[in-house]
Amino acid sequence: MKLLVVGSGGREHCLALKLQESPQVSKVYVAPGNAGTQQDCHNLAMDVMDFEGIAQAVQTYGIDLVVVGPEDPLCGGLADYLQARGVQVFGVNQECAQFEGSKEFTKKFLMRHEIATAAYQEFTDYDQAVTYLKDCRFPVVIKADGLALGKGVVIAQDFEEGQEALQGFLVDQVFGEASATVIIEDYLVGEELSLICFVSHNDIYPLETARDYKRVGEGDQGENTGGVGGYSPMPYQGAASLEEGESLFANIQKLLDQISQGFKDDGFDYTGMLFVGFMNEAETPRVLEFNVRFGDPETQVLLPRLESDLVTLIQKTLDGSLQQEDIQWSKETTCGVVLFSKGYPGNDFERMTGIAPLPENTDKVQIIHNGTVRQGADLYANGGRVLTVVAKGDDLAQARDRAYGVVSNIQSDNLTYRRDIAEGAK
Ligand code: AMP
Ligand code: GLY
Any residues with CB less than 8 A from the CB of 197 and at least 6 apart, and which? Predict the structure, then answer.
């Protein structure tokens, strides 16, 4: 089989490597890819939103299956576009992509099916939003409805911060249409957990757990990012005891069942990936958000632990024959540390800064590329998140030591990283 992975980040590099391991696969193309996929696979220089170009590449290269990584093409309807042309594609349809494309769409779904989540109100009018804000208990969470590269969420500690966020979203329209509607929701306390699931015609099959570090600064300080580190699995995080942990996971399973039933009741055909962000308060989980794709960097810490053939899992998800037992995991732990450009998550970081030749991968440590390009023999950083060093270990401490051992050998003046990924984790 020949496969095409659409996207250019660490998630796609990691997906492409995992797909390439399959005995069924002869060649993996990545569009547009990065320096990592250029080296390990075959890059096709085309934009993820160039649907016509992608369909044409499928013809030209005889591609049997397209796997879509990022949300933009899914929200734009790439899966529908390709399917209509007889192409086998793994990625949710445009209708279901609204679960990521619109926070209000997801909130309404959760409320309609009485699935635990933070209480909220939506607004398009600045004055009405401010009036509501006056009576809020702080902190309060203010979110742009649409896609904002993970930057559309503000946790306002007081009225002034809230008003500033509303001004930015609704009046200055910093995210354009994406912030023309805002959601103001209650602040939830607890431990966050990401659960990524295969969804086969509305039936949900969770992968093992992964933790993502969202804040740019050590000690979870500073701005939200796309995610700058992670580890897997994340057993019973936030639970005081094993019993509490088991009860938490049983409660999470109940929410997944409710979500699946909700998809069915509403007549969706949800097939692809579903990423559920939970906030767990002791043994009570609540849904924070849905994404309709694999997470980044969650994918980089999950897939090295996956023992099953990813192509088979995708085929079974598409044809409706997937069973939970099909998804097999190694007992090893993984830890991933993201090297990012100084200045990220702002937009004014330097681009095309040099990176010295990278350390060799081993069977325990792998360097995944996020935003890199190669010119001749030279490697350059060309994005906010640039590299993810992923290490396996018998336990988290070993995985962490191995990851940081390699991170400290990567030389580039403009790259930095958090030093506390997986520190003190249970
Ligand atoms: P979202 O894109 O909705 O996941 O929000 C991004 C991040 O903001 C989440 O990962 C949480 O860390 C935080 N967040 C979002 N909603 C809430 C909430 N209701 N209460 C507390 N933190 C939240
Ligand atoms: N790491 C969070 C995400 O991929 O949305």
Answer: 204, 205, 206, 207, 256, 273, 274, 275, 276
Question: Measuring from atom 3 of ligand 2, which residue has the nearest CA?
Answer: 295
Q: How far apart are CA 81 and CA 98, in angstroms?
A: 16
* Tens digit of each residue's pLDDT (9 = 90 or more) over 181-221: 999 999 999 888 889 999 999 999 999 999 899 999 999 99
Verify whether ligand 1 is closer than 6 Å to residue 192 (CB atom): yes
Which of 3.30.457.10, 3.40.50.80, 3.30.470.20, 1.10.10.10 is the CATH number of 191-326?
3.30.470.20
From 137, 153, 187, mutation site for ligand 1 pocket: most ligand atoms within 8 A of C-beta: 153
Q: Is 100 in the pocket of ligand 2 (CB under 6 A)?
A: no
* Class of domain 333-416 as given by CATH: alpha beta
Q: Are the C-beta atoms of 321 and 198 separated by less than 8 Å?
A: no
Is the CB of residue 289 less than 8 Å from the CB of residue 277? yes
For ligand 1, atom 5, which residue shows the shortest CA distance?
153
74-98 per-position pLDDT tens digit? 999 999 999 999 999 999 999 999 9
Atom 19 (ligand 1): residue with closest C-alpha? 187
- Ligand in closest contact with the CA of 292: 2
In this prediction, residue 238 carries a pLDDT of 55
Domain edges within the chain? 2-93, 125-180, 191-326, 333-416
Q: Is 214 in the pocket of ligand 1 (CB under 6 A)?
A: yes
Domain formed by 2-93, architecture: 3-Layer(aba) Sandwich (3.40)
For residue 277, the ligand 1 atom closest to its alpha carbon is 4
Q: Look at the block and give the residue holding tokens 């445009």.
A: 94
**Residue-level pLDDT at 254:** 97
Residues in the chain with pLDDT values less than 50: none
125-180: CATH topology is Dna Ligase; domain 1 (3.30.1490)
Identify the H or E element spanning 81: helix 78-84
Helix (H, G, I), strand (E, B) or coil at 125: coil
Confidence at residue 151, expressed as pLDDT on a 0 to 100 scale: 78
